[in-house]
Design goal:
259 residues, mainly alpha, three-stranded mixed β-sheet, two-stranded antiparallel ribbon
Length: 259
């Protein structure tokens, strides 16, 4: 294909791919959501093969209870798996997949704090952040090579591309969400957990716990996130809205009791 024609097609794709996130931010989203969902499914399948799954009934009931309450607010079918790993981490993938590491349960001290993290991760999915990152990569690299990588997730390039979904070092390189995306997921997640009836004020304690758990450095979950002071300031600014959402949820009978 002549370079001029390729650039014209690329320009049209970029124009057609401009969308708006749930918070009103302009985004570049070029990939079909079905393709991104398939990538999420592939990544999750690989993780279940490569990482030990927690089988304890009590732990699984607790995590499922919190995750179900949060995802009920967005609808759809979500698969939730607890991984036996000391990292204070969690993730959500396109296609309705949620992973929670047992190490997080040592830092998230109650159901509201766990809902903060799960809500944050689901917020990334709702805002199509994975699609946005893949699309940005498409816009700056050779389109054909990227499309081949999407179609062949087991290839070297394809495995690196999987890192764009947010699952981290399992694919060789951690490709962090941008700070803008992280801040957006914070607010979306705060609203989401409050709509489910969880206490949004516990989000401040959760992030303080996360910062303390890092010792000399932040845990992996926080390594690419906004600074603790910035995050807490932004959450406090939005807290009146979130508290109103929780009050309304409680009036509707939404009172999670996950133990």
């Amino acid at each position: 294909m002549p370079m001029r024609s390729f650039l014209l097609i690329l320009d049209l794709l970029l124009l057609a791919g401009c969308v708006t996130s749930p918070t009103g931010r302009s985004q570049l989203v070029l990939m079909p959501d079905s393709q991104i969902d398939e990538m999420g499914l592939q990544a999750f399948t690989n993780l279940k093969k490569e990482t030990t799954v927690e089988t304890g009934a009590t732990t699984n009931r607790y995590v499922q209870c919190v995750a179900n309450a949060v995802t009920r607010e967005v609808g759809g079918t979500w698969e939730v798996v607890v991984f036996k790993d000391d990292d204070a981490n969690a993730f959500a993938l396109p296609g309705g997949k949620i992973g929670v590491y047992t190490g997080l349960l040592k830092v998230a001290e109650n159901q509201d704090q766990l809902a903060t993290v799960i809500g944050h991760e689901v917020g990334h999915v709702l805002a199509r952040h994975s699609n946005e990152r893949v699309s940005q990569k498409f816009a700056v690299e050779q389109g054909l090579a990227l499309l081949n990588a999407v179609a062949s997730p087991q290839s070297g390039t394809g495995q690196s591309l999987m890192g764009l979904l947010g699952v981290g070092a399992q694919y060789g390189v951690l490709m962090p969400f941008s700070r803008i995306q992280e801040s957006e997921a914070d607010i979306l997640g705060l609203d989401l957990m409050a709509k489910a009836g969880f206490d949004p004020r516990q989000s401040i304690r959760l992030w303080n716990n996360m910062n303390r758990a890092g010792g000399d450095g932040p845990p992996e979950f926080l390594s690419t996130h906004p600074s603790g002071s910035t995050r807490i300031s932004d959450l406090n600014k939005h807290m009146p809205v979130a508290v109103q959402l929780q009050t309304r949820a409680r009036q509707q009978g939404k009172r999670p009791a996950c133990k």
